[in-house]
Specification:
Length: about 170
């Protein structure tokens, strides 16, 4: 049994890769944008701002991860990984269920391509539609968190998925 923690800038291809992994391994995807968008649709915007809402969404995400791992299912958490707490929760929950922890980063250091992808995707209410500045892009790209005691796998998601998917599957199975 495994738990995959996805990582990468919005628009870097995490959801595309997660879906392909799920199709090949029959695992469940917990998509942070779905959780957060559902919460946004459920409340009045004046009731709560985005930062606490993101934390609430992550708590729901991890409750679902816990639930599915408890049933012996493989799980992917599709979200950026910008907080140390996410790494901590991911590694603790895998220990609880004796699951293999896998960390997959979609890395795309291309401001223009990221913005093209963000502007052309079918956007959920919780998702950004563009990156306003190169400075913000670079700062966020560099602030991605990685586990210290785990072999991480990074893909150049500027390339076609079919050029790296087999390596990703090999990493998951290792």
């Amino acid at each position: 049994m495994f738990f995959i923690q996805m990582s990468g800038f919005p628009g870097s291809g995490k959801s595309t890769l997660a879906l392909e992994i799920a199709n090949r391994t029959n695992c469940i995807i917990i998509d942070h944008d779905v959780t957060k968008s559902a919460l946004l649709h459920s409340i009045n915007e004046d009731e709560i701002n985005g930062k606490p809402l993101g934390g609430i969404a992550y708590n729901i995400d991890f409750a679902l991860v816990d639930f599915y791992l408890s049933q012996g299912r493989n799980v992917i958490l599709d979200s950026p990984c910008l907080y140390d707490e996410l790494i901590d929760k991911g590694t603790i929950i895998t220990q609880k269920y004796n699951a293999n922890y896998k960390y997959i980063e979609c890395y795309l250091d291309d401001f223009v391509e990221i913005n093209r992808r963000l502007k052309t995707r079918n956007k959920m209410v919780s998702q950004i539609s563009e990156v306003k500045s190169l400075e913000t892009f670079n700062r966020t790209l560099k602030s991605s968190k990685r586990p210290l005691n785990c072999k991480c796998f990074s893909v150049n998601s500027g390339k076609s998925l079919d050029t790296y998917i087999n390596e990703v599957i090999d990493y998951i199975n290792s």
